Amino acid sequence: MPVLASIRLRLQMLQPNINTTKFRGEAPTDNPSLALLSFWQSEPIMTDPNCLFCRIIRGEIPSRRVYEDEHVFAFDDINPQAPTHVLVIPKRHFAGLKEADQSEAEVIGRCHLAAAQIARQRKIEQGYRTVLNVGPGAGQSVFHLHVHLLGGRPLSWPPG
Ligand code: AMP
Ligand code: ZN
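^ thats the input. predicted complex w/ adenosine monophosphate below
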């Protein structure tokens, strides 16, 4: 068994719900030392094989991609509530704001900065909203943290 596959298998045995496959740049598995080096040089991105948004990031479910970088992915909401309704998500899977820990602080900020960049490009800076629904009681239906970017129409306050 190639070295990388064997390491993944061991990680899977320790963490059966976590997929340690990297999204891009698969390491060469025919050269064990190169594979090991490549594996340890880059932290694998944790994904959940059953999560809708992880599957969108992997391209298993189609989406209209708006923005992507190493840490963040953004795509149009399938049921838009405003002329601009984009979901900005971390590539690393975690369920939501209340499940986040200190290690997620940076990527949560990155999601918001990506939303600001998209708003600039869409010329909706006169007024837009970034929203995190936290928990079913607030309408969270997908348990992979996502920032809604809503704009392009007047937004009333308080929200419903
Ligand atoms: P929330 O209710 O805050 O968890 O937001 C989940 C959002 O995901 C909703 O606004 C849905 O319309 C959106 N959504 C669900 N499935 C998809 C999909 N396949 N592609 C794009 N957006 C989706
Ligand atoms: Zn996920």
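The longest strand covers residues 84-90.
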